Amino acid sequence: xxxxxxxxxxxxxxxxxxxxxxxxxxxxxxxxxxxxxxxxxxxxxxxxxxxxxxxxxxxxxxxxxxxxxxxxxxxxxxxxxxxxxxxxxxxxxxxxxxxxxxxxxxxxxxxxxxxxxxxxxxxxxxxxxxxxxxxxxxxxxxxxxxxxxxxxxxxxxxxxxxxxxxxxxxxxxxxxxxxxxxxxxxxxxxxxxxxxxxxxxxxxxxxxxxxxxxxxxxxxxxxxxxxxxxxxxxxxxxxxxxxxxxxxxxxxxxxxxxxxxxxxxxxxxxxxxxxxxxxxxxxxxxxxxxxxxxxxxxxxxxxxxxxxxxxxxxxxxxxxxxxxxxxxxxxxxxxxxxxxxxxxxxxxxxxxxxxxxxxxxxxxxxxxxxxxxxxxxxxxxxxxxxxxxxxxxxxxxxxxxxxxxxxxxxxxxxxxxxxxxxxxxxxxxxxxxxxxxxxxxxxxxxxxxxxxxxxxxxxxxxxxxxxxxxxxxxxxxxxxxxxxxxxxxxxxxxxxxxxxxxxxxxxxxxxxxxxxxxxxxxxxxxxxxxxxxxxxxxxxxxxxxxxxxxxxxxxxxxxxxxxxxxxxxxxxxxxxxxxxxxxxxxxxxxxxxxxxxxxxxxxxxxxxxxxxxx
Length: 614
Ligand SMILES: Cc1cc2nc3c(=O)[nH]c(=O)nc-3n(C[C@H](O)[C@H](O)[C@H](O)COP(=O)(O)O)c2cc1C
Known about the structure:
This protein has 614 residues and is α/β, with parallel strands linked by helices. The chain has 3 domains: 1-76 and 113-261 and 334-349, TIM Barrel (Alpha-Beta Barrel), CATH 3.20.20.70; 80-110 and 266-333, no CATH class; 400-613, Fumarylacetoacetate hydrolase, domain 2, CATH 3.90.850. It contains 20 helices and 22 strands. The chain has an 8-stranded parallel sheet. Strands 13, 14, 15, 16, 19 and 20 form a 6-stranded antiparallel sheet that branches. A 5-stranded mixed sheet has the order 12-22-21-17-18, with no helix packed on it. Strand 10 and strand 11 form a beta hairpin. Helix 4 packs parallel to helix 12 and helix 14 (352-369) packs across helix 16. The two termini are 29 Å apart. Mean pLDDT is 78; it is low at 400-429, 477-506, 546-558 and 570-575. The chain binds flavin mononucleotide. The site of flavin mononucleotide has 27 residues, from strand 7 and strand 9. Residues 20-23, 25, 44, 46, 72, 135, 178, 181-185, 218-221, 239-243, 326-328 line the site of flavin mononucleotide (FMN).
């Protein structure tokens, strides 16, 4: 089975959410706000002059703080102007010119929208945008090669299965499946036949089936429910436009905002009136009186200049009669809230499994490359159960446990009420637990800890009374430490530290520990005996060193201290530790072991554990 990387891994974002580039309705402010909320913010370049584009790119490059962002270009083939067609177009607009007192002779001609070109590539190259998306196909292979040379990921829209296959053959990194519900221009480029165009939920699964690159659903994606539906149909991510149009960070005009918030937004249609290309907008006077599709408009983008003065005149009077009121079919979720809030509400629909895969892949990547992993809002919203699933997934991705899943330490002070409790794996000394190191790795650090499972929530008066079982926990920490990756803070939620851990000691019922007093805990001695393949033996010893103990707290106060600490760190949302939680007591002893070693780990008064490092 082929492995499709999570879209987030491909794009470098925390969330599989792309803010649709929307020429004329937004600039860098919206894009940056979405980037900061964990999505991929997009800067639309199509309607910008070279100077304006340079200025916006400079803002993106300076303020994106290392987060990935997208710049979007049109890739249409400019049509050859046909003077007779232009004249017929203007004749059909003549009554409206007269009504608004516009002299047709004063209207300039011009394309209005320029496709991506060598000049634009020269302009953009110094800013090295991490992602470049195209609408209306792709630029020439030579131009595309220039974009790739910056290291940018390339996306483009497909409106049919044929277009998706064509884009895949050109080597795009991901395909945006643009359904018929979508606001703005149809991105079609292999056909102009509108009868080929499908709704998002008909198009998306067909494209997903046909291609092997990740598919991003666009069109009618406005809230968590539609995001969830897109993922259910195989989307690797979503691209939402209309949902962001009322955000304060967007530059949507006043007449456009008013239309989106009115009853009129329920009625959208495709029209060629405003640019010559078929695009979806809220039905307005021009569409009603001139015919949304059945009109004289020249080919895209040549129709733009003749209607522009009518738009300006009507807008001056506060009306959107000639304004392209681009909107998708579902503007019902459009709210005047921040882009971060829109992004957050869309993120609620991303399935937990996708979030887990996404975060696990980026953590594993950070681990492999030694790069810093930036926690984002998407991370802090994870439940503890999801965090542990991520831990398992990271360990799997890194090959920590190639022989299959084992009992995980679900420990520390995180609220794990929603997480499955780990199976405690008995390991009598006669049967060593085999610990298989990943290929190419011959040594590893292990950490021995005591772990308690709580029989009841601790109470201040007698915290030790809550301990139900005690066992030895041995954690494999070397893969990170050996590679010099420090700063485990980012990993906190996945575990109290950095470890893939196993509870491998035999669980001891509390009854066996009536003699186990708080001061035993403080003074508890641990030993790790390592016997190498050559028979040489090294014995390491250590004692309790939990920070609570080191900072002078009496052991009796340690459990409540852990609970308070967990609350302060935001690692548990409820009252703290409760029955069933596992608590590890901090590092007791860390030792480097090698492939072939036989390792005995023990604490005074507890049965030991034997590990075979293979
Ligand atoms: C106001 C507006 C402007 C748009 N401009 C662009 C654009 O410049 N480039 C582009 O690739 N897509 C553009 N689109 C289309 C979007 O990329 C996307 O397909 C669409 O917004 C998705 O449907 P939705 O609006 O229902 O979310 C625009 C859409 C809107 C609503």
